[in-house]
Design goal:
Structural class: mainly alpha
Largest sheet: 2 strands, parallel
Strand content: 5-15%
Oligomer: single chain
Shape: globular
């Protein structure tokens, strides 16, 4: 969904679906104008959706604090997923 003209309102609506989803593992909203309010809604969605392992928000007018908070939640999930799919040799 990169560069699709998603606004604050769209990001808030999208966040509701992201938070409720039990199958979505990754979302990229780079190059959309989701702003701080949309970023906060997505942060909440990331907290709710335990299956999500990646959420990109580059060039979205969200604060570094929001992006760092999302990364702090998703980093351990991504590491866990990588470890569970590791095939030993």
């Amino acid at each position: 969904m990169c560069g699709n003209g998603i606004s604050v309102v769209g990001a808030i609506e999208l966040a509701a679906g992201v938070g409720a989803s039990r199958s979505l593992a990754a979302i990229s909203l780079d190059n959309n104008d989701v702003r701080e309010e949309g970023g906060q809604a997505l942060l909440k969605a990331v907290e709710e959706n335990k299956g999500l392992v990646a959420c990109r928000l580059d060039n979205t007018n969200t604060s570094q604090d929001v992006r760092n908070a999302i990364d702090a939640i998703l980093g351990p999930r991504m590491a866990s997923q990588r470890a569970s799919h590791h095939i030993g040799g």
